[in-house]
Structure formats: structure tokens, C-alpha cells
Amino acid sequence: MFCEHCDFQSAEAVLKTIDNFEKEIPETVVEALDTTNSEARDKKEMLKERLRWLTFSDPVFVALPYNLSDHRDELKFNLFFFIAVTAYINRRMFEIGLPMRGAIHTGDIIISERCYAGKAIVDAHNFGKKFQAAATFVSEQADALIFNAFPEKEGFYSWFSNSIIECEVSTGTKLVSKLLLGSESEKVKTLCWFNSEIGSIKRFAIPLDLNRFITEKFTAHGKKLSGEKEKMKVVNTENLFKAWKALSQPSYHQILFHKK
Which domain range does residue 117 map to? Predict the structure, then answer.
């Protein structure tokens, strides 16, 4: 719980940011995409309303229904919209001192007004929690869905290839006699939010001192790095960010609504 050591003013500011996610982020993304203002307002609202949000304590759950029988352009836009929203959530949570660990997955789920259920949710949770870094990890199923929808290596494909990056990430630490000896790792697709520029969302200014930046975010709001595993998550996240910096390239594509 981030509020455990957090003063009231800081907690209020953080909760306001989270409350704004449901409206601010989708609206920012959809308005940036429709730079020519060619889409009717009701269509934009319909897209934003398809997103389903649930927030309980620290966890944030976001889902977007899709159908493989949808028109190809509609499926492609929905996928881009969802990944862009998810990347911005990750970035904003990190910036306000709440580093997140999560997963993007696909599968059948049931969502009511206040509850959600389904094996896909459990699979996503188990998949995400195995990696010991503050990032969102993309399952093989979700990765295949995205890149099968974008087979041409241009436009959207370029944006995705700079946003979904395979990296080596720690999956656990080895502790012997209370000493950290090393860690096991695994290659996995990760959601990189460094280079996305969409409308008023500018490319992230990568700090020169990543260790200091990441440590400050992990210890914001009175949080403590109380043990070796917590400290190792900072190191793992720093290594991941360095990999993002080395492997990704700035993307300046102008993304527009396009209907055939």
C-alpha cells in the first residue's frame, strides 16, 4: 500500500492522477490520433467507452473487447489505442512514484460493473509477477495478436516494434546465508514507454543517472527498500531501462484515423 508512509497531500495528488486515468488518458490518445478531426464525436466516445476499468488499492485493471471478425483497420486501431493507453499509464505511474509491474494478455473474461473473472486474468497475473522489475510484460499470445494484425513493416508496425521490446529480465534472486549471489533470468517481451510521442504526450526525457531516478521513484511517498529483494528490483529495473535505451529508437510517426 503506497499510503502506508505517505502524507495526506501526496496521497491526494496520487489518487487524483489515478482517478483521471479513465478520462484523461483515452481522450488524450484518441484526440491525438484524429489530427484532422475527421471522426464524429460519438464514434470517439464509443471507443473510449469500450475500455473497462477497475481499480482496487494499488492494482489497475484495463480491458478492451475485440473481435477477430472486425474490419482489419478497426482491429488495428483498437490494438494501437489499447497499447498506447497502457504505455502511458505505466509512464505516469512511474513518474508519480508508483512503479508498476503487470502484464498484457489476451483471453476470455467476464466483466460486470464492479467485478471481473476469468482464467485469462489469473494467467496474466501469474505471468507478470514472475519477473522482478517494474514493467509491463507482453505474453506470447498478446504479442502474436498484435504483430499478426500488423504484418507490414511500416507505419504502425514500426511504432509497435519500438514499443514492444524483447529483453532479458530477472525472474528471481538466489539468497544464501542472507547474501545475494545472483539471479535467474528469462527473455520476455516488455512494453517500453520511452519513445512514444502522441499529441500532447511528448517523448520521455531519459535521465542521465537512471539509478538515482529509479531509486527515487521506488522510495517516493515514504516507501522503503527494506530488503535485498526490493533493492534488486531497482537494479533489475535499471538494467531493463538501459536495454530499452539501447534497443529502441525514437518514433515520430504521425498517426491518423484511416478508413478504407
Answer: 2-247
In the numeric block, which cell numbers belong to residue 255? 498517426
Does 55 or 219 have the greater pLDDT score? 219
13/158 Cα distance (integer angstroms)? 35
3-state secondary structure labels for all residues of the chain: CHHHHCCHHHHHHHHHHHHHHHHHHHHHHHHHHCCCCCCCHHHHHHHHHHCEEEECCCCEEEECCCCCCCCHHHHHHHHHHHHHHHHHHHHHHHHCCCCCCEEECCCCCEECCCCEECHHHHHHHHHHHCCCCCCEEECHHHHHHHHHHCCCCCCHHHHHHCCEEEEEEEEEEEEECCEEEEEEEEEEEEECCCCCCECCECCCCCCCCHHHHHHHHHCHHHCCCCCHHHHHHHHHHHHHHHHHHHHCCCCCCCCCCCCC
Report the domain count for the chain: 1
**Percent of the chain residues topping a pLDDT of 90:** 32
Task: Evaluate if pTM is beyond 0.85.
Answer: no
- 256: in domain: no
Task: Specify if 194 maps to a domain.
Answer: yes
Looking at the domain assignment, is residue 97 inside a domain? yes
- Position 238 confidence tier, pLDDT thresholds 50, 70, 90: very high
**pLDDT confidence bin for 138, thresholds 50/70/90:** very high
Q: Per the domain annotation, does 73 fall within a domain?
A: yes
